[in-house]
Design goal:
This protein is mainly alpha-helical and 153 residues long. The protein has two domains: 1-41, no CATH class; 57-147, no CATH class. Helices cover 42% and strands 10% of the residues. It is built from six helices and five strands. It has helices at 31-56, 67-73, 78-86, 104-110, 115-122, 139-145; strands spanning 9-11, 18-20, 64-65, 92-94, 100-103. It has a three-stranded antiparallel beta sheet with strand order 3-5-4. A two-stranded antiparallel sheet has the order 1-2. Strand 4 and strand 5 form a beta hairpin. Helix 1 packs across helix 2 (67-73). The longest helix is centred in the N-terminal third of the chain and has 26 residues, at 31-56. The protein is elongated, with a radius of gyration of 23 Å. The chain binds zinc ion. Zinc ion is lined by residues 12, 14-15, 17, 28-30, 33. Pfam families: HTH_17. Residues 64-109 form the Helix-turn-helix domain. InterPro entries: HTH_17. This is Helix-turn-helix domain-containing protein.
Amino acid sequence: MPKAKYEIRRKCPICGAVFQVRTIDSVYCSKHCSDVAYKRKKDREAKEAKYEQLAKEIPDIREFLSVREAVAIYCVERDTLYREIRKGKIPSVNLGTKQLRLNRADLEQRYPRRKKVRKAAQKPIPKTYNMEPENCYIIGEISKKYRIHDTSV
Ligand SMILES: [Zn+2]
């Protein structure tokens, strides 16, 4: 990288310190801040990958989602979502201890889907209804697959 010809000062996005850049494309004030930024980026990517994986396992026709699933599909943080639920801005049903379920339609209205999930959702959806016996579930299978109680099915 060529050395900066003139004194250029920037504000470090990590610690907020104003520093004189050594190269034109210096963004962080120090190796430490650069490392912190790198780690944050990696953490974010790992989180996104986890969301993407979970979102892939949730069929588009599923009407009710757990908070964990909702966070995987939509651009909303877990704490924010819980706050909105507590305020009553997002209706929820409780199927038992820690079994909160949200209606996908409410979430769809309120939050955009995560970018990678959006892409996946654009792919053609396989036939929704196929009532051949090998394609049907018994209630036990449904409750197991969707992790909800038999009586809710
Ligand atoms: Zn810094």
